Amino acid sequence: MTRKPASAEAQHLADLEWLASDPRGRRIVWRLMERADMLGPGTPDAQLGVWLSGAKAAVHEIIVAALVTHFPVLLGSVLTEALARTQDGRRKRSTSRDSRPDDGRGIYGPDDGDDAAG
Description:
Number of domains: 1
Helix content: 55-70%
Shape: flat
Distance between the termini: 87 Å
Number of strands: 0
Low-confidence stretches: 111-115
Strand content: under 5%
Structural class: mainly alpha
Order of helices and strands: HHHH
Radius of gyration: 23 Å
Largest sheet: none
Number of helices: 4
Mean pLDDT: 78
């Protein structure tokens, strides 16, 4: 018993759903979007700009448009998880910066900016 082969479009959507259904796959989708500069402002370099516009078009056509149309919840997961990773990275960087020894003065000086205690 053989199964009827799915259309190319149906197979693409099934593959994309499979990819975006797993956190590892969502990280791959996000990296592709990042590398294609999908959310970036662009670049003043003309050659790089041409390459990026081609990359954006490919990633948009192959991944983003299908996610928006057929799997918006999965696209939301891609973006939410990427934002969480970005915020976690910022927290880790700020925590390591804040781990300097405290000299007891606070950020405003000896009285820590409390003018009422004056």
